[in-house]
Amino acid sequence: MKGTRPKQSTLTSDNDLSKTAETETVIDNMVDGLNDHEIDGIGAFFAENFRWMGNAGCGLKQGLLEFQDNWQRPFQDAFSDKVCIDEARLVQGEWAAAFGRQEAVHSGEFMGIAPTGKRVEIRYMDFWKVEDGKIVDNWVMVDFPYVMRQLGVDPFNGHGWEKNDSGAMPVRNGTDNNPESNND
């Protein structure tokens, strides 16, 4: 790109770095609450009017009630015996980010797919903004195509670009994901 550059990092331009420890505590407690399958009590971590902004298939949830009723409850209905594992987490000031996986059993309808009873890995990335001890914004990417593939559905109908890759994803449920060594 030649010439004028777009302004970068505008959302973090006023980041209060003195809030790092507080933000880390909020995120630690929120992940513990999610691993305890807490839905009704998640207001301890999320502001009433927070925004949850997901990728296609996940949607936008405006406020705590919409998040509980239109994300948490349907997600837990579709995937039971769920545990959330942040593989890496970065915290700086009022901002935190993580990527990781949830391991769960497909026990309810998901994207039109009837329950299979299969154990799946649900990969995600999260960016959180914390103010006054609560999450006010949460940008989310959940790898639903990867989940669908584990359930036997190819959302790209054979046209995904991974067909050009040299191998399978290296990790699934914490183990080697080589198709020849996978006993699923």
Characterize the structure shown.
By secondary structure, this protein is an alpha+beta fold. The chain has one domain (18-155): Nuclear Transport Factor 2, Chain: A (Roll), CATH 3.10.450. It has three helices and eight strands; from the N terminus they run αββαββββαββ. It has helices spanning 20-35, 64-78, 144-150; strands at residues 46-53, 60-62, 79-92, 95-106, 119-131, 134-142, 171-172, 175-176. The strands form two sheets. It has a six-stranded mixed sheet. The chain has a two-stranded antiparallel ribbon with strand order 7-8. It starts with 19 loop residues before the first helix and ends in an 8-residue tail after the last strand.
Order of helices and strands: HEEHEEEEHEE
Named CATH architecture: Roll
From the helix content, strand content and strand pairing, which structural class follows?
Answer: alpha+beta
Termini, distance in Å? 46 Å
Mean pLDDT: 90
Low-confidence stretches: 178-184
How many DSSP-defined strands? 8
Helix segment tally: 3
Identify the strand order in the major beta sheet: 2-1-6-5-4-3
**How many structural domains does the protein architecture include?**
1
Proportion of β residues? 25-35%
The main β sheet shows up as: 6 strands, mixed
CATH C-level class: Alpha Beta
